[in-house]
Structures are given as structure tokens and as C-alpha cells.
Amino acid sequence: MQSLWDLAETARFLNVSQAVLRKRAVVTGEIPHFRIGAKIRFSPDQIRAWLDKQSSARVVGLRAEDVQ
Q: 67, 57 in Cβ contact below 8 A?
């Protein structure tokens, strides 16, 4: 089984601050994540898939919400 990333690892991978990541993941629900107790965890595969989806949406000029 693949290791999960914590907030710091995911923020580093996405090149954003932990505060931005927390807001976009937890507050808005935009970035896939889940909780184990009080801890926020991210699946590297889900983060990469989400990132690919964001990139694809921008390439064709669509908003991320338009991509299914």
C-alpha cells in the first residue's frame, strides 16, 4: 500500500503554502483528502489525478468544475 502524504508533504508537492492547501482541501473541499482522526491525509495518486484534471481544464479553456 502506498504511503499517505500529510499536509506539509502535499503542500510541498503542489508548491503552495500549508494554509492555502488547508483552505482549498478542508474548507472548500476542492482538493481530495480525508481525515484519520484529527489528521488530514492525502493520497498521492488522488492528488496527481486532481492535478492532471486541473491542467487539462486549463489547456482547453474550461473551468475545473466543467471537467467530469
A: yes
**Residue from 53, 8, 3, 9 nearest 30 by CA:** 53
Residue 63: exposure state from Cβ atoms within 10 A (0-12, 13-18, ≥19)? exposed
Cell, residue 58: 486549463
Q: Rounded to an integer, what distance in angstroms lies between the CA atom of residue 30 and that of residue 14? A: 14
Q: What is the DSSP letter of 37?
A: T
Q: Give percent above pLDDT 70 in the chain.
A: 81
Enter the C-alpha cell of residue 31: 482538493
**pTM of full prediction above 0.85:** no
